[in-house]
Design brief:
The protein is an all-alpha fold. The protein has one domain. It has four helices and no strands. It is elongated, with a radius of gyration of 15 Å. The N and C termini lie far apart (49 Å). The mean pLDDT is 88.
Length: 89
């Protein structure tokens, strides 16, 4: 039962970060719009997977682990989305 609850909390945090980062409407620059959209999806996925240890044991090391795992993935996703928006016809 605690596994199910920790998964729900992790997905909830992922959805929260998704809603915060995702652009509300298409910005003037399509490249920034796609960059933020890809960033939002990457934060949703990485938070859903890597925040679970923090749910079990509220420790600073678990937050640092989440940050170390999420930051490079988020940067890569933003750059990929930015380039996708830049070269999309």
């Amino acid at each position: 039962m605690i596994n199910f609850i920790s998964i729900l909390i992790a997905v909830g945090f992922g959805y929260l970060f998704f809603r915060i980062v995702r652009p509300k409407n298409e910005l003037s620059s399509k490249s920034i719009f796609y960059g933020r959209t890809f960033l939002a999806w990457s934060l949703f996925a990485s938070t859903s997977f890597y925040i679970r240890p923090f749910v079990y044991d509220q420790n600073l090391n678990n937050i640092i682990y989440w940050l170390i795992m999420s930051a490079p993935f988020a940067i890569f996703a933003f750059v990929f989305g930015f380039l996708y928006g830049k070269f999309r016809n």
